[in-house]
Amino acid sequence: MDEFELIALTAPAMADPSIAIAASRAGALGVLNLEFVTALHEARGAVAKMARHARRETGIKLDSTAADGINALLSDLPDTVRIIIFKDMGPLSPRSEKASLVGSQ
Predict the structure, then answer these.
(1) The pLDDT value given to residue 2
(2) For a tag on the chain, would you pick the N or C end, based on fewer CB atoms within 10 A?
(3) CA 65, CA 79: separation in Å to the nearest integer?
(4) Distance between CA atoms of 90 and 104, rounded to whole angstroms?
(5) What is the pLDDT of residue 102?
(6) Range of the domain at 22
């Protein structure tokens, strides 16, 4: 049988790392989905909680159009976050002009 790795993503917009933490503890890759999270302090808190409680490397998923928020978040990312997934919301985004994680520190 081929070996494979499971990846578990949290629900977007929730800033709740519980599923990512559980996945990490079970031997899978836990990814905290920060799409649609608009408060930078919530994103940082969720990443910190995931880093504290996970038992192996983890990841985050970000909206690539939120450059200011991404730069602020990545500037102090824990070492345990080894995978970063960028989602390009592009011009077809159903969201308003407010990008995730922008201007909300």
Answers:
(1) 78
(2) N
(3) 24
(4) 21
(5) 46
(6) 7-87
